[in-house]
Specification:
Largest sheet: none
Oligomer: single chain
Strand content: under 5%
Order of helices and strands: HHHH
């Protein structure tokens, strides 16, 4: 769970650093966020392959990677703020999947004698 938060947190940290005038440090944080976002993306794909998560859950991770790489390439950390939306979307998809699994487990328990 904490690994999924990391790209959004690093994107937010880079925006704050850029806002206070530390553009070099903000770029460094963005460059550090690229492999972290890639690790989150690989974790999402592994969850899809293992049938632990739906295919839709890999989309926010992929968009986060694109946003962070684009923000780092253009040296515009504010472009990476979309990672916060991606994290929110990932959280909503995970919560919906958890609700669906609990509901199906409950209905199976009710049907078994």
């Amino acid at each position: 769970m904490w690994l999924r938060v990391a790209p959004a947190a690093l994107a937010l940290a880079s925006v704050v650093l850029a806002a206070v005038g530390l553009a070099g440090e903000a770029l460094g944080v963005l460059l550090f966020a690229v492999p972290v976002a890639a690790a989150v993306g690989l974790q999402a794909v592994a969850g899809v392959v293992d049938h632990e998560r739906s295919r839709v859950s890999a989309i926010p991770a992929a968009v986060s990677i694109l946003l962070i790489v684009g923000a780092a390439a253009m040296r515009r950390p504010e472009l990476a703020l979309g990672c916060l939306l991606c994290f929110g979307a990932d959280w909503v998809v995970a919560a919906a999947g958890s609700f669906t699994r609990k509901r199906s487990a409950f209905s199976e328990a009710r049907e078994s004698p």
